[in-house]
Amino acid sequence: MTKPPDRGPAPASASPARQPTLRQLRGFKEVARHASFSRAAEALALSQPALSSAIRELETLMGVTLFDRGTHHVRLTPAGQAARAQIEWLLNSYTQGTDDLRRLLDTQAATVRIGCIPSTMHLLAPAVAQWRLRHPEIVLILSDHLNDELMAALANGELDIGLGLDFGLAPGLAAAFVAEDDLVAVLSDSHRLSRRRQITWQDLKREPLAVLSRGSTYEMIVSALRQQGADLAATDTLNYTDTLYSLVRAGLRVGLISRLYTQGQRPDGLAIVPLQHPRLTRRISLMARAPEQQARAAVQRCYTELASLLRARAAAAA
């Protein structure tokens, strides 16, 4: 009979090898320590049959006998002696790792990450400073974002709380209304329209304009200008407020911007005039995970108290 060709060892199974459980490893450690199944079972608050079963499962998994069991003795076999130090190291590493994880989560529990759109920072910063005086044990991390980025960061958990524009919330988010923000014209104080109590969009139809380039406010302004038949090609689209204010102060442009962007500016050389017909407003809201989805008490407390502080500041400034 012809001998079949040697095809080598059978391929390894695609499924991962079974690993010892913590219950088994802890059982081994206590039996080795007490040299007794009954005393080890008592230390582990297990029944002796359950402990014996765990040790047999471990021996089967490892493919060796770990204990020499006699009528009046339990001793480690040479294999058990060899395994003891490694098993104790594994258990100590696990304990250290869980302690490190607990410390990390304790630190996270005492940290609240807050973001806002840039125009609202002058509202947020004083309220945050006031809140920190009441809760010095909580670490607050502040950042600024465009509104779309802010909403995405709230939805994916990068931020705990956000102050921005409420144009519709992602599932699982809640919002507390803080203030209404309207669009205004910013002019040089020597401009012919600077003494008006209000300006219509039609008044600006032939004026050289400047707007900030990104975000929802830009889209609102462009839509209004189109409706008035304004020449958008003559409108400067800028990245930074400092550039816009410099052009306005020099009398080169009329700036179109949200009122919140004007409240941190020096008023010298500027006139800020409401825009009407139509009056365009933005809803400023404090946003966070809905209470039923918020597991961290520090975040929920900060959100509730900041909403109250912000409403009070917005009302005082109105």
From TrEMBL:
KW DNA-binding (keyword) present: yes
Sequence intervals crossing the membrane: none
One annotated GO molecular function: DNA binding
This protein's GO CC annotations: cytosol
Stored CDD domains: PBP2_LTTR_substrate (cd05466)
Keywords: DNA-binding, Transcription, Transcription regulation
Origin: domain of life: Bacteria
Keyword field contains S-adenosyl-L-methionine: no
Domain HTH lysR-type intervals: 20-77
Entry similarity comment: Belongs to the LysR transcriptional regulatory family.
PANTHER family, per the entry: HTH-TYPE TRANSCRIPTIONAL REGULATOR YBHD, NITROGEN ASSIMILATION TRANSCRIPTIONAL ACTIVATOR-RELATED
Record protein name field: HTH-type transcriptional regulator CynR
Lineage: Bacteria, Pseudomonadati, Pseudomonadota, Betaproteobacteria, Burkholderiales
